[in-house]
Amino acid sequence: MFAVTILGNNSAIPTPDRHPTAQVISYNDQLMLVDCGEGTQMQLTKYKVRRSKIRHIFISHLHGDHYFGLIGLINSMSLLGRTEPLSLYAPPELEEILRLQLQCAATTLKFNLSFHALLPDKTGVLFREKDMEVSYFPTKHRIPCYGFSFSAQRRKRRVIPEQARAYDIPAAYYSQLQNGADYEQKSGQLVKNDWVTLPPAPGKRYVYCADSIYDEDLLPHLEGADLVYHEATYLHALVQRAQDRFHSTAVQAATLAQKAAAKRLLIGHFSSKYTELQPFLDESIPVFPNTELALEGTTYLIQ
Amino acid sequence: MFAVTILGNNSAIPTPDRHPTAQVISYNDQLMLVDCGEGTQMQLTKYKVRRSKIRHIFISHLHGDHYFGLIGLINSMSLLGRTEPLSLYAPPELEEILRLQLQCAATTLKFNLSFHALLPDKTGVLFREKDMEVSYFPTKHRIPCYGFSFSAQRRKRRVIPEQARAYDIPAAYYSQLQNGADYEQKSGQLVKNDWVTLPPAPGKRYVYCADSIYDEDLLPHLEGADLVYHEATYLHALVQRAQDRFHSTAVQAATLAQKAAAKRLLIGHFSSKYTELQPFLDESIPVFPNTELALEGTTYLIQ
């Protein structure tokens, strides 16, 4: 399974029923956390996401609504006896903030926290692990800010059953064909793998655009993505405020998704001034029909 | 009114229905916040405490469950347009942590935040304002930690109506008598204030003991207090663990309250391992009958 679960969909100031930004990406048995606003550890508990399974955390930028919950989560992980290493990808200044906070509490983490600084002149792949590749790219915001792209590769070749049968390859051998093996017939003749298989199906990709002003420079990162998350802090009536604060409107998010030919769009980071979210959909769907609201506690399949 | 409202009653790791430590002291129209664990700003909203009315914040120590919510609260206050100054009393290292976090976000607070460092060699009165005096004292914990004493003075003398009537003083003059004025009769004879009034009633005092191992050195600070808050992280079965971690049990909190002849005791900071709180009362009431559980959202009058 490849999916994203929303833990917080609000911008700066929390409202009684909306929390600051945090999302969990699940891929097979692995969890990755993207941003970690205040209260994220409580949201993880509420939605029964197992903290212990999180191995990578990505922080897009150092506005508090995207990371004030991080130190609490890390602290709790240690108190709960975590020993598995944790990788953190974030703007470089965060390392010193965490170090200071741990030092003041005389806390030594019980696990290895490896810090990877996101630097503007060093975009690209953050890591590849099995079938998952995570990369990052800059967005345009008031302070340095990064989006993340999660790409689940398909490694298995697709067997063409008619062809395989034509060469008398037993079905028990198909899993080896999927892994690219050739087949030797009893007669000794070699059946080349690509005579009976097709290349792997295309991978699936989720792109998280963090906070950003409307910016067509993002298009190459979003192109053809299966699911794009883009902020929609304001409705169109406040497009000038969005511009001034380096945020976007629902219509702008939808426009980018449409131009990038993304398959689906998820919008979030709603300003606290809005109590109703339906107008965000009403404005974006005419531009990009396949838009959904990022709702807390909801899991969106990336497929 | 002089009262304390509990926003969080749990120790280190939040549970689904208990939050880390935070309390609001209300005295007349003024609010003061004591400790500020993660999620305090959400708890303030939930319990309809007006953030804008908070003018003083006290942080007992730099374990995260007592201050990780502070930067978020301060940030939100600024975003909401606060202009009134805010005083913060905390261990000195907190100033640099806040400074760094604000700097990384390129945030300039819209109000004046004045930082007052709590230092072990400089205990005593933090401020006096109208009838309220706040002082601090060290507790014994794993890192430097401080308790706070909130003392509401009564300034008005108590009129003795029979005496006042005997001197023909009109009731309309009583408020001046309360403020200490003498009265001149029509005959020109002076009635001294203390012939017709009694000194002000004794003040009321709330003492917050923060985190602490069982420590009889606290007794002078608790003596005769109208309400004492003392941590009770563990039940008696874990008294050794309490000792090892510089925490207390319910029985120990009750013992201190009893030895100090406090009037009432509030216990909190319960370990996440306990789902039921009644056993804390069951253990402390035999030692100090006037014990209550610190329950989130509940306001305790200090009277």
TrEMBL record, chains A, B:
Positions with a binding annotation for Zn(2+) 1: 61, 63, 141, 211
Entry's cofactor comment: Binds 2 Zn(2+) ions.
Keyword check for Zinc: yes
Lineage: superkingdom: Bacteria
Leading EC class: hydrolase
Residues at the catalytic site: 65 (proton acceptor)
Residues where Zn(2+) 2 binds: 65-66, 211, 269
Pfam families: Anti-Pycsar_Apyc1 (PF23023)
Gene Ontology MF terms: 3'-tRNA processing endoribonuclease activity; zinc ion binding
The protein's role, per its UniProt record: Zinc phosphodiesterase, which displays some tRNA 3'-processing endonuclease activity. Probably involved in tRNA maturation, by removing a 3'-trailer from precursor tRNA.
Name listed for the protein in its UniProt record: Ribonuclease Z
Gene designation: rnz
